[in-house]
Write a structure and sequence with these properties.
Blueprint (H helix, E strand, L loop, with lengths): L3 E2 L2 H23 L4 E7 L3 H17 L2 E7 L5 H13 L5 E4 L9 H5 L13 H8 L8 H11 L10 E5 L6 H10 L3 E5 L1 H6 L2 H7 L2 E4 L17 E4 L3 E3 L2 E3 L4 H7 L2 E2 L6 H20 L1
Parallel strand pairs: 1-11, 2-3, 2-4, 5-6, 5-7, 7-8, 8-11
Antiparallel strand pairs: 9-10
The structure holds NADP nicotinamide-adenine-dinucleotide phosphate.
């Protein structure tokens, strides 16, 4: 029997309703509208799509949105100064730096300069550290989106389950491993060396929960998927003009109990979580 689709849109709709209601309540209570400031350095067609989607989602939910465009030629010091000004600006409650940044800017260094109170992507080391302690109020958006999708599976009991995450990036794989551990999920993280050693299929075949965040179309073969598994495909790849994930979808659908489509799975939820983080940041600052 084919698996069921885990659609991000459906889960996002419910969270959006809560955000809209809360944004209106906060505006009434404090007399100011929560505001997200997005900083873009230079022009980039890939980030334009994200910026448009962020702006539309923010405005639909009652969150103010400002795009601060800086010239691609600004130096790292000038960029840091611009971030520090935003940290002091009481009308800016959440700050997001659009990626990719030009080569001469060190993204990891920049993340240290965003005030942890306004760091709505949880890229500041302090916010990342809070995840280790299980105390984070602002979570990395994509990792949190995966958790929301898992929690949306009817009657799922995460306690004691076996999960495999493929990909160990700082924004997805690593924080997600900590979030799953917090729920007592036995979690294995695979990465490039697992792929090179040739043992990726062995790990994937054992996964009751499989989350793939690599960015390589068809990396995970459908017949590796454990029957009845929950599969969350984070990958976004453009193949022959179509957007596909990292998992061989049609074959995986035949084996999984639940699987996210790409597009329409994790993506719509990620931007929703970003907005939820703006409200959380706003509340922390009041
Ligand atoms: P990333 O920083 O490039 O990380 C990719 C990870 O995959 C790395 O840990 C890499 O390991 C690992 N990897 C590479 N080849 C592998 C292989 N053959 N076997 C096992 N692991 C391998 O990417 P990211 O930012 O996490 O994003 C991953 C994918 O998710 C991309 O397609 C991105 O577009 C997508 N994404 C989607 C959303 C969404 O909202 N839907 C949000 C964020 C990202 P090494 O570092 O050791 O090479």
């Amino acid at each position: 029997m084919a698996g069921q689709l885990l659609e991000g849109k459906t889960v996002a709709l419910k969270i959006k309703e809560q955000i809209k209601k809360e944004a209106a309540e906060l505006k009434t209570k404090f007399g100011i509208q929560p505001k997200l400031v997005s900083v873009q350095l230079g022009e980039n067609s890939a980030s334009e799509i994200y910026i448009k989607s962020q702006e539309k989602t923010a405005r639909d939910l009652g969150i103010d949105y400002e795009l601060k465009k800086l010239d691609a030629s600004v130096t790292q010091d000038e960029f840091i100064k611009a971030i520090e000004l935003l940290n002091k600006d009481k009308s800016a409650h959440g700050i997001i730096v659009q990626m990719p940044l030009p080569q001469h800017i060190d993204a990891k260094l920049i993340s240290r300069y965003i005030s942890p109170l306004k760091d709505i992507e949880a890229v500041h080391p302090q916010n990342m550290g809070e995840i280790v302690f299980g105390k984070a109020k602002i979570l990395p958006c994509t990792a949190a989106a995966c958790m929301e999708l898992l929690n949306s599976v009817p009657s799922i009991e995460l306690y004691g389950k076996e999960a495999v995450i493929v990909g160990h990036s700082e924004i997805v794989g690593k924080p997600l491993a900590l979030l799953l551990l917090d729920k007592f999920v036995t979690t294995t993280v695979c990465h490039i060396a697992t792929g090179q050693r040739g043992t990726l299929p062995e790990f994937v075949k054992k996964a009751e929960i499989l989350i793939v965040a690599v960015g390589k179309a068809g990396l995970v073969k459908g017949d590796w998927v454990k029957p009845g598994a929950i599969v969350i495909d984070v990958g976004i790849n453009r193949v022959e003009g179509k957007i596909v994930g990292d998992v061989e979808f049609d074959k995986a659908l035949e084996k999984a109990a639940y699987i996210t489509p790409v597009p329409g799975g994790v993506g719509p939820l990620t931007v929703t979580i970003l907005m939820r983080n703006v409200l959380e940041a706003f509340k922390q600052q009041q």
